[in-house]
C-alpha cells in the first residue's frame, strides 16, 4: 500500500471515529403501552466544564419517596445534535418500581437531557 493511500485511509478512520462518537443518541429501555402513564420527567442540563466529563445520576423515586407503580419504560432523550452524552441504566428500570440512570457527557461538553419514566 502506498504511504499516501495509507495516510488517507488513516485520516478517514479518525474522521469517521470522531463523527461516530459525537452523534447524539436517545436511549430507551422497555416498552410502553397506551395504558401507561408518565410517572416522572426531569431535565438534566449542565454546562460544559473544560476537559471534564460530567456525570449525573437520575434517581426515581427520590430518597424517602415511594412509587406504587411498576415501571414499563425509561427514555433518555439527548437534545444535543452532536457531542451528545451517554446514558446507562444502573439500577432498577422496567419491571421495578425504581430506577437509577447514570448520564455522562462527552469530554469537554455539557449535557441537555430529558429523562422520562413511564409505568402503570
Ligand atoms: C431524540 O428524541 C427527540 C424527541 O423525541 C427527537 O426530537 C430527536 O430527533 C431524537 N434524536 C435522535 C438522534 O434520534
Ligand atoms: C436544551 O434543549 C432544549 C430542547 O431542545 C432547548 O430548548 C434548550 O434551549 C436547550 N438548553 C441548552 C442549555 O442548550
Ligand atoms: C429499588 O428497590 C429495591 C427494593 O424494592 C431495592 O433493593 C433497590 O436498592 C432499589 N434500587 C434503587 C435504585 O433505589
From TrEMBL:
Keywords: Signal. InterPro entries: MBF2. Residues 1-24 form the signal peptide. It comes from the Eukaryota. It holds the Pfam family MBF2. The keyword Signal applies. This is Putative salivary secreted peptide. It comes from Ceratitis capitata. The lineage of its organism: Eukaryota, Metazoa, Ecdysozoa, Arthropoda, Hexapoda. The gene is SSP.
